[in-house]
Amino acid sequence: MSSDTAQTFPVTIETEGAERVPRVPALAAAVAEVVHHAHEHTIDTALARWQAQGLDKARLEPILVYCAEQRCQADTATCPGCRLRTEREGLKSLDDLVSRYAEVRFANGHIGLKGPGTGILEAPSLETLSTSWAGQEYWFWARRVLRKLRHGIRRASQSGAPPEPGREAPAMILVRPQLADNIGMAARAMANFGLEEMRIVDPRDGWPNEKARIAASGANYIIDTAEYCANFTEGVTGLNWICATSARQRDLAKPVLTPEQAIAEIRTRIAEGQRCGIVFGPERNGLETQEIANADAHVMVPVNPNFASLNLAQAVLLMGYEWMKQAGGGTLGRVTTYETPVAPGLRLRGSQPAGKEALLSLFEHLEAELDAARFFTSPEKRPSTVQNIRSMFTRMGATEQEIRTLRGIVKALVHGRRTKRELP
Questions:
Q1: Interaxial angle between packed helices 312-327 and 180-192, expressed in degrees from 0 to 180 and rounded to the nearest 10
Q2: Domain boundaries along the sequence of the chain
Q3: Among 15, 84, 317, 417, which lies 20 to 30 A Cα-Cα from 402?
Q4: What is the pTM (predicted TM-score) of this model?
């Protein structure tokens, strides 16, 4: 076990029948039970459930870490109902499970199943068994809760209180998204531009979904804290103003805004203490007209009229970019320990623009060598040609190092030409 776990509520391995199960003796519960309670309810609910045993956020975190990192694998243990146990037992289908028992009984008594195995398996219903036989991805749930826990701690340590009015950001509401990959890429776009609150309404492939985490490419905290909503009404609950994005025109008496105008409106309302959201529709057909009718404004992006459809993540990115641009605080590119913020314009990388005396000296050197090479074939045109050459080099805005390099080039060309003349 890790040292941080040992200092709080240690996870121990206990034998239950033929199985080794990771449990938290201080809570008299399996690790999966703690994870399940925190995920299916809330972190605060889980803390209240084991309050008498002294469970707090500091003690909860290492329990979540144990599950999230699948440390049970090294301990050759699994929790009841975990998919890791199902996979270890080699169960690949519901038929494989049924074949292990002589009979499967259901609480509703409407149906029963017979198998070639031994013993009796009891389940609430066939529907429940068909959706739960493979087990739950408790480690995924633990990662999600862990991110919520740490993110909440981080936000509290940064501000000590909820964000000040005007510093809140709009919620990004994805309605019936079809592909988990697009959800992940939308989360990545949100992270790029400082947006954190994602609400997912009735996703086609269910939620949570590991594919979304993979596609998020590091923006896992958004995936882990995303709020699942069963319908549109739940998705917009708690918001005072929402705008709906769609490339299709609708016959509605409703303001049509560009992304720039929509974000400006959102910023004004957030500054007044309102909560706002931006609604995005499913990839195939977008939002229904009724859903747009429920919004306060319709957002349309200036696009090629012959190809107006945007990918879900692209639409989120466009709105996120506009949010960051108007909110300020963004940087050009990443900033790390070794990389400082970049300002727009010419980057001299530490060099200074060349002094005028160095530039004029280069001109004199270059013109003298051009005279020696008989470049100026027409004496009357020499002044205008010299003027054009000087204007061209002045326009470069060369640095001191670049002037030295140019002088070296001229010298090398002249020296090379003279050397050739001296050869027999």
A1: 10
A2: 1-89+136-159, 92-133, 163-327, 356-422
A3: 417
A4: 0.52
